[in-house]
Model the fold of this input.
Amino acid sequence: MSAKEKVLSVGIDLGTSQSAIAASDGGHFVVDSFVGWPVDMVARKVIKKPVLIGTEALENRTLLDLHRPLEQGIIKEGSEKDIAAVKEILGYLIDQARGDGKDQKVRAVVGVPAETMRVNKQQLRQILRGTIDGLMIVSEPFAVAYGIDALLHSMIVDVGAGTTDFCVMKGRYPTEEDQRSLTRAGDSVDELLAKLISERHPEVQFSIHMVRTWKEQHGFVGEPKERVVVTAPVHGKSQQVDITDVLRAACESLLAPFIEAMFDLLAMVEPEFQEKVRHNIRLSGRGSRIRGLAEELEKALGELGGGKVTMVEDPVYAGADGSLAIALDADEGDWEKVSA
Done:
């Protein structure tokens, strides 16, 4: 057995709201990017664990010092707990991928937002030191493109929670000029939706977590197929609340900046290849599942002569799968050693 076969290769999509891992043995795992520590001795007795991660942390958040350690794709600075939270998320994912092979060597390709790579690289090196044996850090949209073999005359639009990343692929590793990152993404929709609901229905009680769930279940742009009615407490009593119009307005806040970024990048493509790129635009990320998004972006391309926008087959794992594909193709010299 070769040295390469003895190593578990993994691809990690480190996300603001959700993080995923894909392993060379076929394992796939995803976790919400939340970590919490019991706030006091009572909470410790109730929880019976030193730390909670993912959905378990969210469900018990009133008992926890809860951290969502990434903001707009960047690891929060100035807080040891946020650094510790990233370490817990990555450690959890790697342990899930290792399974029973706890001593197995691991090499990881980690995808991060395009314009945060310089900021996140050094922190990730320190966080993962001693946890894995080899590291590569790549931009998330490039990882998606690599995984779906869209490396030439294509554009990736990766709609995350903290950022939306755009990348034009020209058959080589993308430069900074080939990429854009916007902070108009899932979180900005959540914040606007919460504001609009408060203005339209001031009597309704809700949390940002409820708003995020409503958006993920019902989010849409364009004409509604049906009214969106959710249940929320009003003075302690459950009530039906119609959020159709405010949900549409919040989701459609993404359209203008997305179209502007697409047009900007398309204009920088060599003229004879622009039509090919326009007809090969791929959406990924959890935010890409907003109903009607691909169709509205495709409609906007009519101004430039038409185009085609489609969603990748698995938007949740596209980044992790692409990072894994890079790991499997990488040569020995491509890896940065991060052993303890």
The radius of gyration is 21 Å. The first strand starts at residue 8 and ends at 13.
